[in-house]
Amino acid sequence: MKRSWYIFLAKVLVLAMLLTATYLFFARQLTQTFVSDDYAKFTHQSASLILGLSRAHYAFDPETITKQLEEVDYQGPFLNFAFEKSQSPYGEVYLNAILKKIPESTAKGIYIMGVSPGSFSASNRLRTPEDILEFDSGTMLGKMNNMNTHPNLEFVRKCFGRSLYKGIWPHDHRISTVFHDNGWEEFRLYAPGYRITQESIDHWQRETVSGYSKLADVIPEHVSDYRIEWFGKTMDSLQKRGLVYLVRVPMHEGVLALEDRVWSDFDKTIDSIAREKGVPYLNYRDRAYDFETYDGSHLHSESAKAFSKDVGTVIKNHIVQRELVQYSQEEY
What we know:
Blueprint: H1 2-31, E1 48-51, H2 54-59, H3 62-68, E2 78-80, H4 92-101, E3 109-114, E4 121-123, H5 129-137, H6 140-143, H7 153-160, E5 177-179, E6 185-187, E7 190-191, E8 194-195, H8 198-218, E9 221-223, H9 225-239, E10 242-248, H10 253-262, H11 266-277, E11 281-283, H12 301-331
Parallel strand pairs: 1-2, 1-3, 3-10, 10-11
Antiparallel strand pairs: 4-9, 5-6, 7-8
Keywords: Membrane, Transmembrane, Transmembrane helix
């Protein structure tokens, strides 16, 4: 009886080892191809970061910003560590994830913090700080412990959510989108075999404005004091590691009108916080005609590169001016 029991246990153990080995093989194979939109953000540390929601995720090209800052003394490289609205509103969970991305030795990083009403909102169902923290803890950032490893098998286990066979049989994803290792998601208007027309862009922009209006009715939100408080704590933590810049990314005028309706004095509030913390606020709210979105809310590739160049130039000029002021003070 004992012998048959041992044989049974041995078979179970062998089966478990085979299943584990198979899972690890498929998971590792998957990480050698395209995993998901956000996988690259969880593979390495970066001394300088781009933060915020999806608007920042599409708008900031780290490579373009880096080129504008070639003559500036700072610690890089840049990583776009912005996510969609439900994943990275400002709060304790986002701050903890941010701090894991930054090497401990960092003292001259640059942190571009995208701001919009969505960064500080919470569902009306989440009224207390405990409610919001519990919600945030269930997001991708809340579930992940390992933020800086490739291959990141924890990401595959907790955040992939699809069949692992895709690691063996390559699959197609959107040809209009390019996912960069620096975290930037680039939306291209044209490539070999396709071209997105202005008619399509106009349609998507109208759909976005309409969709945002309906969503606000179905899932009403409020401005969260908790998120504003942790926004300030995030700025305080990052200022110990370098320079902070607040940026409002340009958007379609229809989307801007919706945001103004929800929070009419948003820019006044952010400007007040920026002054209190001693950081620049780069407000591009009225530059929609200079930097075009493809859907009303997110910049397409060409606009994102132009926007990143503009922001990079402003940051460079600010740093140069700041160093000149410090030098003149030392002289006296």
